[in-house]
Amino acid sequence: MPGPAIRRLLGGDDTSVFRCGDPEYDLFLQRYAGQNQDRLFVGTTYAALDGPRVVGYVTVAVGQIDREGIPSQAQGGLPRYPLPVLRLARLAVDEAFQGRGLGHRLAAYAFAVALQIRVAAGCIGVVVDALPDRVGFHADLGFVELELVSGHSPIRPQPVAMFLPLASVEAALP
Amino acid sequence: MSRRPTASLTHVPAGRKHAKALGPPTKPPTRAELYGPVVADSAASYVNLGITWLWAYDVCMTHATQISAQVSASAKQLLDEYSAVSGIKKSRIVEDALWFYVRARQELPESAIVPARLVVSARGATAVEQSLAQPPQATPALVRLMRTLESPEEE
User: Where exactly are the structural domains of chain B?
Assistant: First the structure.
């Protein structure tokens, strides 16, 4: 496969020169992604590497969709227990590598992780926090907007939570 | 010359008749002795969150208290199930979880924490339900995206 290899972020990976155009995403990779992953276990980051240098990343975290407080008649056919999902929280590509499809590869990699989790522990779909200018892109992939009561992403400008069932991802596998 | 340590600090909560102020280590009083009957209103998901022990050698400092909290039914269910499966007391689970949570919040800025629990509105629930009942067919864009796939490494 041409282009940077993708794998789980490791301690020795060079994140120091990563610049994606959004300083908050750069800072997250350089200061918090490893801590999040290896010390606090609240999310995992998969990195695209050009040599030792990280040139793109996607951060995922397991989560659940809950319908707490919704009247039972409005819950439709959904089960009453929380529904496990994989939340695609951040995805960024270094400016020097943008426009080469690396973002697509990282997203596909994250979807494949969700398929693995579905088998290993249960997962019904992927929730992505789409920045306002990327809502259309995710809608083209089949994502539907998810109206939340709580659990919004802390990223600003506030992203739109969108959901895609894994059955659709599986149907799209080559 | 070794000197036997003595108790130097003791906190005795008001009304805790059974808490020993000073003296050699003794068997800790039972929860019932300390707190009396605990009333739990399960119908309202009212959880009596238990007690905490700090028991140091030769410093008989009883430092335990009780908290009560209104929590979601799913949180109570999770607590009950995890306690039953792991054999860990609910009070210990709550205390450990609190320490982990506070530590994480101290070490990470708010923007670095991804909320794990998404509570959807009725409209959101309908959208999920429809997606699961009739998964949308893979769009051409999704098919193209998945063609770029590399399998995640087995770790």
Answer: 7-70, 73-131
Smallest CA-to-CA distance from A108 within A9, A174, A24 is with A174
| Mean per-residue pLDDT over chain B, rounded | 66
Domains of chain A: 5-171 (3.40.630.30)
Smallest Cβ–Cβ distance between B111 and the set A24, A142, A167 belongs to: A24
Question: pLDDT tens, B96-110?
Answer: 888 888 877 777 676
Dist CA B147 CA B139 (whole Å): 12
Of A68, A101, A149, the CB nearest to B74: A68
A82 contacts B86 by C-beta, under 8 angstroms: no
Is B39 an 8 Å CB contact of chain A? no
C-alpha A62/C-alpha A140 separation (Å) is 24
pTM: 0.66
Q: How confident is the model at residue B12 (pLDDT cuts 50, 70, 90)?
A: very low
The span from the CA of B127 to the CA of B121, in Å, is 10
**CB-based contact, B115 to chain A, within 8 Å:** yes
